[in-house]
Amino acid sequence: IAGITQAPTSQILAAGRRMTLRCTQDMRHNAMYWYRQDLGLGLRLIHYSNTAGTTGKGEVPDGYSVSRANTDDFPLTLASAVPSQTSVYFCASSSGQGPYNEQFFGPGTRLTVL
Amino acid sequence: GQNIDQPTEMTATEGAIVQINCTYQTSGFNGLFWYQQHAGEAPTFLSYNVLDGLEEKGRFSSFLSRSKGYSYLLLKELQMKDSASYLCAGLDSNYQLIWGAGTKLIIKP
User: Fold this and answer.
1) Chain B residues touching residue A105 (CB < 8 angstroms)
2) How many CB atoms lie within 10 A of CB B59?
3) Is A27 in contact with A3 (CB distance < 8 Å)?
4) CB contact under 8 A, B101 and A42
């Protein structure tokens, strides 16, 4: 693996179903992020983790949960999907907090909730 | 509140120069990022400014004025492959990125 991978690439999900989006990085970055991107809106932060074992809420956390059991993995779970969660989800990582902290993005997961 | 404003769409001609503007309001300020995003792909880093002035990197340059809450991305010698969305993002006092909606740049031959 080189960089950040996400799985699945795309998914169609029935409303009410539980879904986990996977994200793995091999850069040994401390910080990881989950964003959603919707047409006409900027990237919106869902949850973040500054280091393994810690997580925090972003701008739009409702309906989503995350865990950070180790440095490499940062899964995002939708406990009971709703149509408004239809979006493209990007996972990102950076070496840590502070200035000049370029974020590296995964290829994204396109999720459709029907 | 926190806000990033940039034009929705711009059109330019191959070989020309284009300037994409961005104004920002963030709680505290720790720098301004520009990212490029081709359709259907992930954003990729272009530039970072934290001090006033112009940073040049090949065909791309980025400018920052902290007193005016203003930045621009300048693209020279435009190529068809520069057709993409350009995302402006401000780093706030909590070191979280606040993102603009992006400017879709269309390059015409």
Assistant:
1) 42-44
2) 13
3) yes
4) yes
